[in-house]
Amino acid sequence: MAASKRRVHFQGRCCAYARIVPFLLCLALFLYGRCANGETTRIVSLLPNFTETLFSIGAGSMVTGVSDFCKYPPAATQLPKVGGLINPSLEKIVSLQPTAVVVSASQHELARKLGELGFRTFALRSDSLCDIYDAIEFAGRLTGMTTAAEQLRLQVRKELSDVRDSCTSSGKLRVLIVVGRQRGSLQGLYAAGRGSYLSELVELAGGMNVLHESVPARALSKEELVALNPEVILDFSVADGEPSKFVASGERKVWNALRVMEAVKRDQVYFFPDARFTIPGPSVVETARVIEHILCNKTASR
Question: Which residue range or ranges hold the Fe/B12 periplasmic-binding domain (predicted)?
Answer without folding.
Answer: 42-302
